[in-house]
Structures are given as structure tokens and as C-alpha cells.
């Protein structure tokens, strides 16, 4: 009788449980027994799933790739991205101290410090090595202002630079970034290109990466946590298509670079 009263539930139960109920119904003369059995089995099933259900809930302090977990208003970090040897660490030290010791070692892990201005704003120097690129989305999730260092005198660094910038733009937490500055470092070096020429060259590389990304997304081979930058039928222009204000500025970090960056950060944090 009890087995009959749970009959409507049978289609929703896992097949082994259904078989067990039918078997017990056939051999046990007390129908209530099968009802108790099914309730016990369901309770056991729920208990066994409980740890994974609890663990998969996003905690407010952790960033799960694929979501812009940190709302824009609570972001406090200035993030430095750029290819290796483009001046990120020199810029970090310059902003922290009036007479910085020049960086001597390649940075191999992200460094976060408090800025001496900007009401408690933090600054993170994220190394440009491809092996560390997986932690960029986590840092973007806390990023309010992005500074991208691009060497003005090294055309061979453009593909690597474009890769880092494109991956950042295609990463969902980039949507909470307020503004980006592309600092064209080594601006006083021989053969240094102007920001306008660097922007054109960078756009060519970005468009190439965007086309590849679109193809991968369309064939279902793209990484699920990425979003190809979609801009319609035109070629990509980072200033127009990034979704945030992007400014290109020439600045030599052994000259006027630090002052220009500091003025930009102060202006943005005061807005
Ligand atoms: N002249 C000049 N040297 C720079 C500039 N930016 C960085 N450097 C030097 O280039 C080297 C690499 O800089 P670093 O900050 O370590 O690059 P990172 O790999 O991006 O952190 C260091 O010796 C810096 O002193 C710049 O704008 N002008
Ligand atoms: Mg460095």
C-alpha cells in the first residue's frame, strides 16, 4: 500500500532505487517497510551530495574564473600588466618611493603594495610571463584602474603584448574596470614609436587574436570562461572597443613617465 502511495514518485527516482523498492515490495509482507526504506535512501543520497553542494557555492572572498564576482564599486586596485621587461616593476617602485632602486631581477610572482596616495588604493605588479597568465583574471576582479606598459622601442614585443591585453579584455572581470592607461615606456629610446603608431600596430595584433577567438568560440573549442570581444563587422580598435576609456600616453620611466602615471591615477581616483 505504502509502495503504491509513492508510485507517482517512481519516475523521478534513480533506477537502482526503483528496482530495490520493487524487489522489497515483492519479498516483504509489510508495505510500510518500503516507504521507510525509500526515505532512508533519499536522506543518505542527500547527505552524500551535501559536501559538494556546499563547496561549489562561491564564497564572497574568492573569485571563480568566469564571473565578475567583485562589484566595480568595491574595487581598489591599480593593476600593472604588460609584456616582460616593459617597465612594470620599475613603475611600481617609482610610484612607491621618490628614488627607487632599479629592478634587477625578473619578477616571478605578483606583488601588491599600498600606494602612498589615493586613500588606501593598492597597486599590483603582475608579471608578464605566460606561465603566470592564469592568475590575471583573479587580479582583474579586484582592479579599478588598469595600466598596461608597452615598450615603444621593441616591435618584436607587440604579439606578446597583444596576447596579454586581449586575454584581459576577453576576461569577464574586465567589465568592472573603470579606465585603462596604455603607457608607452622607453619613449626616449632611439627608434621609439609614437603612441599613435603603437596603437595602430597593437590593433592589428588584437584583431588577429579576436578573429582566432571568434572561430574557436563558434566551433565550441573556446575556453568557457572567455568571451570573444564582439564588435560587429569592423576591425578592432582598442580605444573604441575595450568597453572602458583607454588612453595611450608616451612616458619614459627614466624621465617623465612616473609623473604622468601618478597624475592619471590621482585624477581617476578623485573622480
Ligand atoms: N630607459 C628606460 N628604461 C626602462 C624603462 N622601463 C623599464 N626600464 C628598464 O628596463 C628593465 C626592465 O624593467 P622592469 O621594470 O623590470 O620590467 P618588467 O618585466 O615589465 O617588470 C629595467 O632595467 C628597467 O630599469 C623606460 O621607460 N626607460
Ligand atoms: Mg617585473
TrEMBL record:
Topology of the protein relative to the lipid bilayer: Single-pass membrane protein
SUPFAM superfamilies found in the cross-reference section: P-loop containing nucleoside triphosphate hydrolases
What are the protein's UniProt keywords? Endoplasmic reticulum, GTP-binding, Membrane, Nucleotide-binding, Receptor, Transmembrane, Transmembrane helix
Q: Which family does it belong to?
A: Belongs to the SRP receptor beta subunit family.
The record's listing under InterPro entries reads: P-loop_NTPase (IPR027417), SRP_receptor_beta_su (IPR019009)
- State where the protein is found: Endoplasmic reticulum membrane
Q: What is the protein named?
A: Signal recognition particle receptor subunit beta
Superkingdom of source: Eukaryota
Amino acid at each position: 500500500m505504502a509502495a503504491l502511495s509513492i508510485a507517482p514518485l517512481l519516475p523521478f527516482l534513480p533506477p537502482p532505487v526503483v528496482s530495490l523498492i520493487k524487489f522489497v515490495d515483492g519479498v516483504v509482507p509489510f508495505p510500510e517497510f518500503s516507504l521507510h526504506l525509500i526515505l532512508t535512501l533519499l536522506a543518505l543520497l542527500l547527505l552524500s551530495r551535501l559536501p559538494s553542494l556546499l563547496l561549489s557555492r562561491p564564497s564572497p572572498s574568492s573569485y571563480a574564473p568566469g564571473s565578475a564576482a567583485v562589484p566595480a564599486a568595491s574595487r581598489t586596485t591599480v593593476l600593472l600588466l604588460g609584456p616582460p621587461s616593459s617597465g612594470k616593476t620599475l613603475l611600481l617602485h617609482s610610484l612607491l618611493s621618490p628614488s627607487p632602486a632599479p629592478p634587477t631581477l625578473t619578477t616571478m610572482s605578483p606583488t601588491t603594495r599600498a600606494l602612498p596616495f589615493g586613500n588606501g588604493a593598492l597597486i599590483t605588479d603582475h608579471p608578464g610571463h605566460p606561465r603566470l597568465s592564469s592568475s590575471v583574471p583573479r587580479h582583474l576582479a579586484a582592479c579599478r584602474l588598469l595600466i598596461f606598459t608597452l615598450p615603444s622601442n621593441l616591435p618584436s614585443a607587440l604579439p606578446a603584448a597583444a596576447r596579454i591585453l586581449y586575454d584581459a579584455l576577453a576576461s569577464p572581470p574586465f567589465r568592472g574596470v573603470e579606465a585603462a592607461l596604455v603607457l608607452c615606456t622607453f619613449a626616449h629610446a632611439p627608434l621609439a614609436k609614437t603612441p599613435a603608431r603603437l596603437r595602430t600596430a597593437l590593433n592589428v595584433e588584437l584583431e588577429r587574436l579576436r578573429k582566432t577567438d571568434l572561430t574557436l568560440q563558434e566551433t565550441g573549442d573556446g575556453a568557457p570562461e572567455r568571451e570573444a570581444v564582439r564588435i560587429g563587422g569592423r576591425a578592432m580598435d582598442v580605444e573604441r572597443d575595450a568597453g572602458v576609456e583607454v588612453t595611450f600616453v608616451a612616458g619614459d620611466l627614466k624621465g617623465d613617465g612616473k609623473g604622468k602615471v601618478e597624475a592619471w591615477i590621482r585624477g581617476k581616483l578623485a573622480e
